[in-house]
C-alpha cells in the first residue's frame, strides 16, 4: 500500500538487483525523494522493469528514478539498450550530421529509459574538453563551447521530444582541472571573466532553451568563491539563478565524493548544499552515510518541489519518434 508523501530532498542508491528490507525502509523515509541506479542494479530488461516498479510502488507520488546514461564509458545499462557513442565522437563529426545525431541520441535515451521505468538521465555533459581532465575526457562534446552548446542543445531537444528532462553538468565546469573530484578536491584558478567566456557559455545558451536541471561540480574556483561550486551560494544563487536566470532543479553531485569533503561529515555536506541552493542531494556508494543523513538531517520541512518537472512523460509520439531516431543512430554509429 502506497503512502502519500511529498518528494524529499535526498536521492539514494541501491546495492543490488532488487530492494532489500533496509532499502525499502530508507526509501519510505520522508526525506527520501529519489533513486539513482548504477550498472550493479542491471541484469536484464525484465529485472530492471521489476526493480523500478517496486521502487514506484513504495509511495505516492512515486520516487524519482534516475541514472547516468550519457553514452561511451558512462552508460550503465548495456544489454538490450542501444549503444550510445561518447559525446566527443559527435563533436569530431560534421556539424549538420552531428546535430541530427545528437537529437536522435537524446530521443533514443529518453524512450529506452521510460520504457524501463526510469524518469531521466543526468545528461548532457556541458564540460569543455580542455584535454586536462581524465574523468571528463571523451564525455565532453568538444573543446569549443559553441559546439558544445549546439550539440548539447540538440541532445536536450531529443530528450524532451522523447518525454525526458535534461540535466546539464558539471556547473560551471570540470574540464579544466586535472584532479578527479571523486578522489580529490580540484581547484581551478581561472578568473570569472575566463569562465564567462568559455565554460558558462553552454549554460547561458541552454537555460533559455529549456534546460530542466543542473548538477554543480565539486570544484573550487577561488577567484570567484572559496567554496566548491556545489556548496557556493555565489555560484548557485547569485550566478546560476540570478545572472543566468535558471529556474529549474539543482541536484548536488554525489556527497560521498572526496571533492565534497571540505564541508565536513555527510550531514554538514547536505546542509551546506541546501544552504547554497541545491534542491536535492545525492548520496551514493555509502549506505552508512545515507542512513546517518536520514536519521540526523532533521529538516522534515525540506521538499524537492521542483522534482515534479523531472518526471518522465510517456506519450503516443514516443514510439514513432524512437523508431526514426533509432534508425539514424544505428546508421551513424553502427
Largest sheet, order of strands side by side?
A: 8-5-3-2-12-11-10-9
Q: Helix coverage percent of residues?
A: 25-40%
* Shape-level CATH architecture: Alpha-Beta Barrel
SSE succession: EEHEHEEEEHHEHEHHEHEHEHH
Instruction: Give the CATH H-level superfamily.
Output: Glycoside hydrolase, family 3, N-terminal domain
Tell me the distance between the termini: 45 Å
Annotation, overall tally of beta strands: 12
The backbone outline, from C-alpha atoms, is: globular
Main sheet specs: 8 strands, parallel
Q: Which regions are unreliable across 5 or more consecutive residues at pLDDT < 50? A: none
Percent in strands: 5-15%
- Write down the oligomeric state: single chain
CATH class placement:
Alpha Beta
Give an account of the 3D structure:
With 334 residues, the chain is of the alpha/beta class. It has eleven helices and twelve strands. The strands form three sheets. It has an eight-stranded parallel sheet. The protein has a two-stranded parallel sheet with strand order 1-4. Strand 6 and strand 7 (74-75) form a beta hairpin.
Provide a short characterization of the protein structure.
This protein is an alpha/beta fold.
Can you give keywords for this protein?
single chain; 334 residues; alpha/beta; TIM Barrel; eight-stranded parallel β-sheet; two-stranded parallel sheet; 11 helices; 12 strands
SSE order and pairing:
Elements: E1 3-4, E2 10-13, H1 21-27, E3 32-37, H2 45-56, E4 59-60, E5 64-67, E6 69-71, E7 74-75, H3 87-91, H4 95-115, E8 120-121, H5 145-161, E9 167-171, H6 192-197, H7 201-206, E10 213-216, H8 233-243, E11 249-254, H9 266-276, E12 280-283, H10 287-296, H11 317-333
Parallel strand pairs: 1-4, 2-3, 2-12, 3-5, 5-8, 9-10, 10-11, 11-12
Antiparallel strand pairs: 6-7
Helix pairs in contact: 4-5, 4-11
Amino acid at each position: 500500500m502506497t503512502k502519500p508523501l511529498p518528494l524529499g530532498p535526498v536521492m539514494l542508491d541501491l546495492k543490488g538487483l532488487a530492494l532489500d528490507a533496509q532499502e525499502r525502509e530508507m526509501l519510505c523515509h520522508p526525506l527520501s525523494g529519489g533513486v539513482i541506479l548504477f550498472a550493479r542494479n542491471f541484469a536484464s530488461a525484465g529485472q530492471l522493469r521489476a526493480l523500478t516498479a517496486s521502487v514506484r510502488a513504495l509511495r505516492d507520488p512515486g520516487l524519482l528514478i534516475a541514472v547516468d546514461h550519457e553514452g561511451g564509458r558512462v552508460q550503465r545499462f548495456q544489454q538490450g539498450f542501444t549503444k550510445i557513442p561518447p559525446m566527443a565522437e559527435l563533436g569530431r563529426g560534421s556539424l549538420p550530421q552531428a546535430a541530427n545525431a545528437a537529437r536522435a541520441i537524446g530521443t533514443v535515451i529518453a524512450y529506452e529509459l521510460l520504457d524501463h521505468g526510469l524518469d531521466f538521465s543526468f545528461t548532457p555533459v556541458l564540460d569543455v574538453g580542455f584535454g586536462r581532465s581524465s574523468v571528463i575526457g571523451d564525455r565532453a562534446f568538444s573543446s569549443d563551447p559553441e559546439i558544445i552548446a549546439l550539440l548539447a542543445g540538440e541532445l536536450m531537444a531529443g530528450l524532451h521530444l522523447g518525454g525526458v528532462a535534461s540535466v546539464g553538468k558539471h556547473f560551471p565546469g570540470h574540464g579544466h582541472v586535472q584532479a578527479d573530484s571523486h578522489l580529490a578536491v580540484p581547484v581551478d584558478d581561472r578568473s570569472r571573466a575566463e569562465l564567462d567566456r568559455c565554460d558558462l557559455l553552454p549554460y547561458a545558451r541552454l537555460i533559455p532553451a529549456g534546460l530542466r536541471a543542473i548538477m554543480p561540480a565539486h570544484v573550487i574556483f577561488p577567484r570567484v568563491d572559496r567554496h566548491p561550486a556545489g556548496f557556493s551560494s555565489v555560484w548557485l544563487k547569485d550566478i546560476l539563478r540570478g545572472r543566468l536566470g535558471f529556474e529549474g532543479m539543482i541536484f548536488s553531485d554525489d556527497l560521498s565524493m572526496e571533492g565534497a569533503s571540505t564541508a565536513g561529515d555527510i550531514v554538514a555536506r547536505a546542509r551546506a548544499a541546501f544552504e547554497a541552493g541545491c534542491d536535492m542531494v545525492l548520496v551514493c556508494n555509502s549506505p552508512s552515510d545515507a542512513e546517518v543523513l536520514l536519521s540526523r538531517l532533521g529538516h522534515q520541512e525540506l521538499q524537492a518541489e521542483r522534482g515534479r518537472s523531472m518526471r518522465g512523460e510517456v506519450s503516443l509520439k514516443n514510439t514513432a519518434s524512437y523508431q526514426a531516431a533509432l534508425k539514424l543512430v544505428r546508421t551513424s554509429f553502427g
